[in-house]
């Protein structure tokens, strides 16, 4: 149906890493520190662990039909109309999240760098490259990711190496004060943002990937590496700033870069470091957008998704300006309805699919075999 | 030459007036038996071009056979014409009974060809198409009255530049020779380096009017056959009246005509062509220009100088990394400066901030305009420097340096820091071993400056993402332009950002050719070692 | 006013880019979906340009997911 | 097609413009800021650099900085009001020093700091100091030598004296706020004063003589309880405070010789560990200090060649330091009742559960608690000479 593109497992790994880090690198340290206090980094570790389980669930589901995307899978399992309804919700979610990230981008810049630039301009700026990326196709996009992940990790290691002298271990003591229950509870937000959201990757995995065998590993490994980055960032935030400031800042990891000062020479480089967030944010946004565009094309059985990119990009820009009236609404929504939305599409729906699959397996066995 | 055959092709027919004229005068394509008639047709077709010499002679024992010798003055080697054709025909074979040698198997033409002509390459011809193409390429035509046939005697020789040092791609160490304008000399230069029977050459004539000879060169067995097919296809598709330089071909066969980046490599140096052939690439040589095209071309290839392979590997690697760095500077330095001084003041160290602010006191333009003025001034100076007669050059550079460097700053129109930034940018853009990439960078720099002026570093980052997306979407003859970086390929990294020593380079670039990948056997013995026996010790 | 002209210009550019290839390939359905989406996009943008309120889809989702929210937040307490 | 996208992108950029662009010569580069409380209103004083006076080319010999002052109901309002007098908007991204007036400190500094931590242009890596017995404006109104920008002088003096004398404490805004918000630690800030004739301070003549009539000097540590100034520690106590909280990098300290006279010890390595514990339901703190030092100066009759002497010196030093530190702790406990040492945090780290119980009554617990101080001194070098030449001078 859609042009036959394949990316290799390394490229997929890169995409998963960038997706997992995505916005988490900006928002998660603060969110975790609010509840788990100085054990925020432990919560990140727990979150990564739980996240891996979720990813494992995705892999299991996806590998039933290695040639189908999530949208097609839903249709196959639930039948035409129910499946399309679920798919529509999925597409809507992806589109909303794409615009949410456009909003994040604008918000981040408005707060930290350019307060008087109108948000619409910033949204259009990111949406422009986002649409460009999706139009050029997954292959191009994945290759770009391959290059930019190197940039990302170089900057990230610079950040870690240069900020580590500022760490104070008193800030993370006493370790494990909050207890397991509290820590796991507070990690839910992180699991949702980093792993459950990864359900949109099922639009790529496994149908657009060659060499099936390594790819399972790539998905898990990518999530793990992304998780480690988040754990490191959280640990650094808490140990450098202490709990109160980490929880109080909207983007603590950006504040971190302001603290870099090596011999009064390497300092004031936060502007450069901002490209770290722009890169990860860009890829997460584009993956959401790709999922929504491709999903919509597949629901409507279109031959090509490309014509949809520009109009949908336009809609995404408008949505990014409308969905959050202010920052407080965003934070509240993210921690309540946003969570439920993601969880229902990304966790409960897959679980339901497992049930349906198990029930229909016997009755549909023949049909499935024919289809394959 | 094909237009004679494609007479029915209305498009071509209507396009070329002289062709139709020629058609009128020669009712048929074939040569006539009557010599006078033939000569008349030639005269009519070529107008009264004064460089076409038509000489009618009589040969044979009784001087009964009328013959015509036609050649183009200036393209033909008159010495050999004199010595080997005219003398032979008019003097040496005077005593021979030519008619007696004529037999049912051999007419007079073939007799002359086999018996009389003391010239290497000789061909029979039967139609005007061949006649004109040979004549205008510098061959001598021999026509005999009574026969609808003739001979093309190849004794071309025209004034040409010898093999000289290449000027566009200089090296300190490495062969000095560069290609010349003569296709044959050029192929010989390559052939001399690769004495492999598998070095194949395919010739084509492109250009309806210029009839330029174009050769495709590749090593059979290393090259990817699909690529050869693709190149052949694209060359055949060219339908244009004239090819004057390989640049014309490049524009007509490249993958991304609208991209600012070159997807075809060009070089003036035979050693680069030979190395490319050994990697499995295809060279396209065009008659009349020393610049040879190489496909597929990859982005990283433009950072590689042939000298990298003649120097020590460690130095070469460092210099190569330096080139990438210089490329970044040439692309981004002014944009970066604008972004930092107008958006991210925070990033400047306090002392520098104050000193830059002090410099800017009284400068009337915003940093962006200032940078544009300086960049444009520099581009004008550079272009003037290239086109100007050489002896005015030094005067010009003094004026340029003085105007930009000193007077503008003294007058307070431009801040001193901006002059430094623009100079660094300019110098960096010359580091690239190939000119092509420097040109694309020149254009893109302005885009980045505009982005920086409106969005600061974020604009630059977004611009870079867009640029990378574009680069990654490019392909050069089927090979992703950014390979082996994206898609990443570990074995090919031996010769991308760094160059491993020769004894570590075991494979050819794997995306360019899938067959015969091994350059040398992967073995420890490849690494040179001092001899183990003691005999040499103490010598 | 300038805003809506800008939006219409962008829409025109999008049409100019997208429609010819679609017509060439005779993708009728794609063209239909494309037109509908573009109309929605332009409509929303212009509404926004005139600073008229646009209903927030998130509010709707909040109402839909309210029960689930309560369950989850109860679990986390 | 791809090109079209690119063109559109570029076009849209040119259509937009640049909202946040500010040229360097539009910035009022502020290196020092002072906040005072004047009759219920905040008075903000900004020390703004005059760039053309800094560059040697265009300098006309006028003052390199200038002061702008405005009052407002809030700090932000006052700062913005400065635009009424200043031709350029205040740009605080390179702020080096924030001076708080004593009156403000006595009323509480927290309210005035919120803006500084909230506004995006502040980088929160500037030092915060308190003007002792005077207003911040008065401190900022003094010209300085060597560094001709007073803000830089204040910044660098504080940094070097913290590194090599250790009586002052260079707190950046982040650390200050962390201390203010922490349950188990109270804030301190270094004091700053103007000595000499203040009236002369603001003129250029001040720096034209070898001995300026007015100088800026750091003096003492301000002790806070919550966000209110409760008193001052002397310089000596300040050094001991730094010793307890492990802020000493390098300093010299005079010690008494076994018999009479003094010797000076240069401390090259200093490490202080604070450990909290609960002893029979009562909080207790162990402070273990490890010192590595050189004999820097000898002004008495001792035989340095004898290893025994070194051991004796070490013992003496240990004892002296322990006593001094204990007395400082006692002063703070009795006089100010403010846990500036972070004993509460130490308990929290080691006994999180018990800490929860005593957290509420920490103000009562702190003055009563015991602190065990143990100092371990190691002497390594004796400088470039062995025994002092003092021994050779006969008749002493």
Automatic annotation (TrEMBL), chain A:
Membrane-topology annotation of the record: Multi-pass membrane protein
Membrane-crossing residue ranges in chain numbering: 12-34, 40-65, 86-107, 119-138, 145-163, 183-208, 220-243, 274-296, 308-329, 341-359
Keyword Protein biosynthesis set for record: no
Record keyword Glycoprotein present: no
Any one Gene Ontology cellular component term annotated for this protein: membrane
Compartment(s): Membrane
Main location per the UniProt record: membrane
Protein name: Spore gernimation protein
Family listed: Belongs to the amino acid-polyamine-organocation (APC) superfamily. Spore germination protein (SGP) (TC 2.A.3.9) family.
Highest taxon of the lineage: Bacteria
GO BP terms: spore germination
Keyword annotations from UniProtKB, A to Z: Germination, Membrane, Transmembrane, Transmembrane helix, Transport
Automatic annotation (TrEMBL), chain B:
Region (Disordered): 1-29, 519-539
Composition bias type Low complexity, residue spans: 11-20
Family matches, as Pfam families: GerA
Transmembrane stretches, start-end: 321-343, 393-426, 446-472
Domain of life: Bacteria
Record InterPro entries: Spore_Ger, UPF0353/GerABKA_families
Biased composition (Basic residues): 1-10
Membrane topology value: Multi-pass membrane protein
Similarity-based family: Belongs to the GerABKA family.
Name of the protein this chain belongs to: Spore germination protein
Native source organism of the sequence: Psychrobacillus vulpis
Lineage: Bacteria, Bacillati, Bacillota, Bacilli, Bacillales
TrEMBL record, chain C:
Keyword annotations: Membrane, Transmembrane, Transmembrane helix
Membrane-spanning parts: 6-24, 31-50
Protein's name in the database: Uncharacterized protein
Record organism: Psychrobacillus vulpis
From TrEMBL, chain D:
UniProt domain Spore germination protein N-terminal: residue ranges: 20-192
Keyword Membrane attached: yes
The Spore germination GerAC-like C-terminal domain, residue ranges: 219-383
Keyword field: Germination, Lipoprotein, Membrane, Palmitate, Signal
Record localization: Membrane
Any one GO cellular component localisation term in the record: membrane
Top-level taxon: Bacteria
Gene Ontology biological process terms in this record: spore germination
Record membrane topology: Lipid-anchor
InterPro entries associated with the record: GerAC_N, Spore_GerAC-like, Spore_GerAC-like_C, Spore_GerAC_C_sf
UniProt xrefs under Pfam families: Spore_GerAC, Spore_GerAC_N
PANTHER family assigned: SPORE GERMINATION PROTEIN B3
Stated family: Belongs to the GerABKC lipoprotein family.
NCBIfam families tied to this protein: spore_ger_x_C
Protein name, as recorded: Ger(X)C family spore germination protein
